[in-house]
Predict the 3D structure of the following.
Amino acid sequence: MQTGEVRKPSLGAVLLGLIPFLAMCFSVSLWDRVYPMVLGLPFNLFWLVAWIFLTPLCMWAAYALETRQRLGRRAAHKNGVEDARGRR
Amino acid sequence: MSASSIALTVMCLIVAAGAALGFYAGVHRKKNLEEWAVGGRGFGTLLIWLLMAGEVYTTFSFLGASGWAYSRGGPALYILGYLSLAYIVSFYILPQLWEVARAHKLQTQSDFFETRYKSKNLAAFVSIIGVVFLIPYIQLQLTGLGIIVEVASSGAVARTAATIIAAVVVAAFVFTSGVRAAAWVSVVKDILLLIAAVSIGIIVPYHYFHGIGPMFAAIARAHPAHLTMPGATKNLGHTWYISTVLLNSFGLYMWPHNFGASFTAKSSDVLRRNAVIMPLYTVTLPLIFLAGFAALMVIPGLSNGDLSLLTVVQRTFPPWALGVIGGAGALAAMVPAAIFTLTAATLFAKNFYRTIFAPTMSDARVAKLARIMVGFVMAIAVYFAMHSSTTLVNLLLWGYDGITQFFPGVVLGLFWRRVTRVGVWSGMVAGIATLAVLLLSNHDPIFGVNAGFVALCVNFAVVAGVNLLTPAERSGFHEPLETSAEA
């Protein structure tokens, strides 16, 4: 494995990370309101609290995706090495 | 015993217990520079996690967040937004940083810039900018500590005296223990603050309003505009929110101490997993907001919003409980202040002074200079703490404005092979110059946009522009590895 080569995160993982950015940052004018109050909280506070719990879900999915791809690549690399050996 | 002496006694006992734990953790270790500043690089997952918990459990969130909920209202919500998103950003850059750090034996943020861009001067510049913007962050902790002592003593100890006492205690803590001790005391202060946040956030609304729902209903009736943006401010609306959340989420891991802490992880996968769960660590913050909102109705008209949480606690709880909460708050100021002071002093001595003025300086003399710098950094922070009347949150906003100017150099350095030293130099200088002009001429926010974010955009634009005009150069990360791969 080339240690110096920086591997970019996969597109799927980046898209999953963009979901909380859309929800907590860019869409602020949609949810920055007091009503309807949920669980006694103004809607904007409730929305952000909800995303404290939803963000790890998105990132867990991104983690699973990254891990699978990494393992996939490692397996492919190993097979490649064995192929080369077999040919020799 | 009077109420304030009970509160102060309990508080001092907690601080003393915390300091004793820190001292115990530090006493068996050798006192060389490496151990003192980076804990000998033997940190397990738990300690790294605690070190990287960042500002979730410092004076910033404890007194500052509630203070802004009280005095500004809606705009304070940016704190909830940016913390979760900062951990997302870390998911995409820290594992890669860790990989290059391992391959090139990098230990600090300056090492990253020196190796990637093959420039000692750039590394020294990054160090000194890091020191400059750490100072408001240290000032924030000292001011917070001063507020805690002042309220706990019911005003018997004046703020100036309290701030100086705070600085002396923190300096003593730094001298005796170092970073490992700070990490261990973090365990105690995080648990104490968790208990404090839960009890304040639940008991206060129930005591005065019989519930959280009725409390917000009352606030919405009395102050209809307070709970949304721009709240009690004129210019902190949605544009400000978006620009500030973006800037801060890019900036959290640009702080030299957070950046360096990620290098000490056992593997890059640990950093990825950390990023997934870290947002849950912020779950107590909404409870702290509740205290600030409650104070708006219970004790209106405070001159300084940062006093709101402790004043409402003083009104509601018996003196010993104020002492426990004050003690927890004091540790939450001392531990980060110690870590930041240590970082700033080491950066100055090792990565700035030695690099520029004395390349042959021995490690022992660098360690000695770093210790002297601890005193200097403290003195500067105390001076600013006594001569400025800004809110705690504002101090951290300024820190982020500056520190995030490293972001283009780091991210492009990792992912864009073509980015050049001249490009990054120009971008960073342009960003910091823009920032200085905007902040010093009181143009923050400018047209509703966070000034630091404007500076960051200038920074990115200049890096990109200069890069296209200068010839490509080889990344410092590829040079030695390509030769070793051939060998």
